[in-house]
Design goal:
This protein has about 450 residues and is α+β, with helices and mostly antiparallel strands. The protein has 2 domains: about 250 residues, no CATH class; about 140 residues, Protein Transport Mog1p, Chain A. The chain has 16 helices and 13 strands. The longest helix has 29 residues. The chain is elongated and about 70 Å long. It is a multi-pass membrane protein.
């Protein structure tokens, strides 16, 4: 990856200023970008090759050097495989930016916009900024789900930029953005297949889902849901009903991402942010920025459960094993609180890890965390069985060895709390031991808003 050359001080300042402007002042920044005569080579050389490296490097550090686990036990991707993933992910991110730009350019006339490939490339490249930066969260694998925040905000940036760069009428910008994502999903499937060919083992156990690569972020998509959303949008367009088409478009985004993007709220918050910055009111600017994130995440979330509440339902014993370690914490990220408890149970050679995560503060993350929540799947080989299903409003995902030596179970409750248990127990024992925890967690009352 020697494509990138060191930036001098002036170029570095220009890069950081552009990142800041597109994230914090998107509306006027799109107008300036439209007036710039930036070539594709300049855009890649001075911008994309640096930002595309962020998620690739972060993922390598997080998965191969930091690893996934708790209480000192870590699972890491081998360095050699991690380097392959890094290189492939970096190159394919750069490729997908151009592929998405080709799609954006081809779609524009269908929505009363213009064909202009340089503008389409600027729309996708600069619109991807939030998603690419959010890829830095991959350094801490446990925070990887928060990268969805950047992906959702990138969608909003593209929605804002489409009328300026592609001259799509404002009232058709939502539909244009949604169709761009739907077409990108198809391109993402091809990229996923290429990645699987280049990185053995990728994609195993993910039947029925495709990876949409909004440049800089990975979003799991149910291919069936995408097909249904696409047909609904096409029908609305054929009927010539602009309002119905817009509603179908936002529903299409919801079908893909698990949450509706409140563009009206984001527009209002964006204006409030610009006004607050003009007044020099940092407190109001921070509040407006929080409102923008809230809209991107599917609206206002639920009040978070406290660390004490989740710790209280974490048992002293689990499947007859004593609890040997526990950690409970609430982290505030961009104005949202996420509570998590990790517990370890062990005796002699048996060990179980239990995790409780409250995702109620962000509806979109709760849905994104459970991409398996709305689908049913099952796979089996000579050693393991893996299945996803939904029962009585509760989503389950289980994976276990046939000899009973190891099992993993994830449960998404209607209250937006995720329970995860894994260890050296048969799956039936894991389920039985988790039942009291499920009941007590479901009964928890959230504090008043």
């Amino acid at each position: 990856m020697n494509t990138a050359v060191p930036l001098d001080a002036q170029s570095r300042r220009a890069l950081l200023q552009r990142i800041s402007d597109i994230l914090l002042r998107p509306a006027p920044t799109w107008l300036r970008i439209d007036a710039e005569g930036t070539s594709a080579a300049q855009l890649y050389k001075n911008y994309l090759i640096y930002l595309a490296a962020i998620p690739a490097l972060a993922s390598f550090i997080g998965m191969s050097l930091v690893g996934v686990g708790a209480f000192g036990m870590r699972l890491r991707v081998p360095i050699a495989a991690g380097l392959v993933n890094l290189l492939v992910g970096y190159v394919l991110t750069l490729v997908m930016v151009y592929v998405m730009a080709l799609i954006a350019n081809a779609l524009a006339p269908r929505f009363q916009g213009r064909r202009d490939m340089p503008s389409a490339l600027k729309l996708v490249a600069y619109g991807a900024t939030a998603g690419l930066l959010a890829g830095a969260l991959g350094i801490v694998p446990a925070l990887g789900m928060l990268a969805a925040v950047g992906g959702l905000y990138s969608i909003y940036l593209i929605y804002l930029g489409a009328p300026v760069l592609m001259k799509v009428p404002r009232e058709r910008a939502v539909a244009y953005t949604a169709v761009l994502l739907l077409c990108g999903a198809v391109a993402g499937m091809l990229v996923g297949w290429l990645t699987a060919l280049a990185t053995p083992g990728a994609g195993l156990g993910q039947r029925g889902a495709a990876t949409l690569r909004l440049p800089g972020t990975d979003i799991r998509i149910d291919a069936h849901s995408v097909g249904q959303a696409s047909r609904r949008l096409q029908e609305a367009q054929r009927e010539g009903d602009g309002g119905a088409a817009t509603r179908a478009a936002t529903d299409a985004i919801g079908a893909m991402l698990g949450a509706r993007i409140d563009t009206g709220q984001m527009d209002q918050a964006s204006r409030q942010l610009e006004q607050a910055r003009a007044r020099g009111d940092s407190e109001a600017a921070a509040e407006a920025a929080g409102s923008m994130v809230s809209a991107a995440l599917g609206g206002k979330g639920l009040p978070p459960l406290s660390a004490q509440q989740l710790r209280a339902v974490t048992p002293e014993q689990f499947a007859g094993l004593p609890r040997t370690a526990i950690k409970a914490e609430t982290n505030n990220v961009m104005g949202m609180a996420f509570t998590q408890v990790d517990a370890r149970y062990s005796q002699q050679r048996q060990q179980v890890q239990l995790r409780l995560k409250d995702l109620g503060a962000a509806p979109a993350l709760a849905m994104g965390m459970a991409s398996w929540a709305s689908s049913t799947s099952e796979s089996e080989d000579e050693r393991e069985i893996e299945r996803s299903y939904k029962k009585a409003g509760v989503a389950f995902r289980e994976k276990y060895r046939k000899d009973g030596s190891r099992s993993e179970l994830s449960i998404l409750l209607p209250t937006r709390v995720v329970l995860e248990a894994s260890g050296s127990l048969p799956i039936d024992e894991l389920k039985q031991a988790l039942q009291p925890v499920v009941q007590q967690t479901t009964a928890l009352a959230r504090p008043p808003a």
